[in-house]
Amino acid sequence: MAEAIVELKGVGKSFRSADGAARSVLEGVDFRLAEGEIVALLGQSGSGKSTLLRILAGLIGADAGSVRYRGQPLYGPARGIAMVFQSFALFPWLTVQQNVELGLEARGVAPAERARRANAAIELIGLAGFEGALPRELSGGMRQRVGIARALVIEPEVLLMDEAFSALDVLTGERLRDDILRLWSGGEMPTKAMLIVSHNIEEAVLMADRVLIFAADPGRVRAELPIRLARPRDVDSLEVRALIDEAYALMTASAPVAGRATEEPVRMHLGDRLPDADIGRMEALLEMLVEDGREGRADLPQLAEEAELTDHDLLPLAQALALLGFAQLADGDLHLTELGRHYVAGAHTLRQQLLGQQLLAHVPLAAHIRHSLEQAPAGELPQEPFLDLLEESLDRATAERVLRTAIEWGRYGEVFEFDLRTGQIHLPAGEEQEKNAL
Ligand code: ADP
Ligand code: MG
């Protein structure tokens, strides 16, 4: 086995939320990055990927476990590790050249040497001729190239990329990714290992030697998919398609069992996050499944392509359908259940009834809200107690998002209503009167 450059053992990290309670973001993370490899990290947003990268870069400390760089405990930012962020954190008043030199200045490199190394990095990443330009004069793709040059100029052994291509349009992102792979394969970069966080499954499979699937709440490595294909890889080849399917399967598997079908609907707990899925889009996806030639089953990567959805958008929809028992996820395929067929064939009212029924049966949060409303004096309650409950396991923004999703689904299924004006959740209109009459 190649020598580990960075090694994490049993790493844990928690953050304090506004009310002072500690929330565990990472737990028991074991990870090693060896010389010569590219590793990709996939996982839903909020699962702690950026936190893990910041710990690896020495930007923040871990609360538990050990972090070693070349065998030594890592305290503070490591010289040989550079990070590229999703947003182009460039100084608007500095030129490309000055932005790139910045990191070297902080490291006490002499001016002439700074200029030489910055020029080399700028040239390498394809920005020659733009040394004197200001960030606002550059396209998004070129700005991100400056961000990468700024990381490369310190000649890092380890390059960490946090969704570095995801703010770019698809073509620009792909071109930049291919350029980086070319530099890597050609040995033109001083970099000996890369860790890329991505929310694009295809990108991960095209780039990495290993894809790690991260689980959330708390974040930890749930599965690993080795990819033993030479680069550059052909996205349309059978091997690559099969690996993309496998990565989808791992991403959507509810249990830590690799690639296993999830026959049973996923069991949820009260404070679990709900997939960020809109009913209209869930229905559109169900309708795609019954289109001619599909017979109720489709390959997720293919669906993503046809529906022009990113994995980021498609996966929550597929997960929501599985959670509600309208579809099943198995081996990267989505297929309709009997109930799902019934739903698609049904008219609006039947759909509402089915959704309401499934929501109460499979989403404990919705059942809890409904139950609480039935106990409440006027059949109505403010959102706060539910948010507080969710905040025991989720951060504030996620708690709000999850409650919004539950409310949106609940409204559609006529399980409860929400009054935008008062911010109160209440029983549906007809039922409220019944209750008041009692
Ligand atoms: P990802 O990159 O996978 O989307 P992050 O690592 O950015 O996830 O965040 C994981 C969780 O940790 C989120 O719930 C986020 O709100 C929380 N978090 C991240 N950084 C901080 C911080 N400095 N203080 C408090 N909470 C944080
Ligand atoms: Mg992140």
TrEMBL record:
Matches recorded under SUPFAM superfamilies: P-loop containing nucleoside triphosphate hydrolases (SSF52540)
InterPro entries given in the database record: AAA+_ATPase, AAA-associated_dom_C, ABC_transporter-like_ATP-bd, ABC_transporter-like_CS, ABC_transporter_ATP-bind, P-loop_NTPase
Record-linked Gene3D superfamilies: P-loop containing nucleotide triphosphate hydrolases
Keywords: ATP-binding, Cell membrane, Membrane, Nucleotide-binding, Transport
Pfam families, A to Z: AAA_assoc_C (PF09821), ABC_tran (PF00005)
Limits of the ABC transporter domain: 6-241
GO function terms (MF aspect): ATP binding
Family, as annotated: Belongs to the ABC transporter superfamily.
PANTHER family: ALIPHATIC SULFONATES IMPORT ATP-BINDING PROTEIN SSUB (PTHR42788:SF13), TAURINE IMPORT ATP-BINDING PROTEIN-RELATED (PTHR42788)
Protein name, UniProt field: Nitrate/sulfonate/bicarbonate ABC transporter ATP-binding protein
Organism, scientific name: Variovorax ginsengisoli
